[in-house]
Specification:
about 30% strand; 3 helices; globular; alpha/beta; two-stranded parallel ribbon
Length: about 100
Amino acid sequence: MFENVTGMDISENQIAEAQRGNTHTNIAYKVGGANEIPIENDQLQLITASQCFHWIELPKFYKEVQRTLVAKGVLCIFWYVVPQIVGGKKRTESRSDVETHL
């Protein structure tokens, strides 16, 4: 599906663990954070962020997404949401900041 894949994490230990188990020549790992993505401009077709979005400085992250994504690239953000019971109905909170900036 993708010619090359780059995984990124702020933890050197997590990157070392990922590299230790990697048997694919087209997958690379880098230490880095969402506020300064260690990738050149217009290189990424897909950016995913999972279980980390609440830690990210959104204005900086959005600038990095715009800088690194190719035209028509995709940003996919997902995380677990704890359902709340409100008035007998299940409800979850949405991240309106995402919708505002995209």
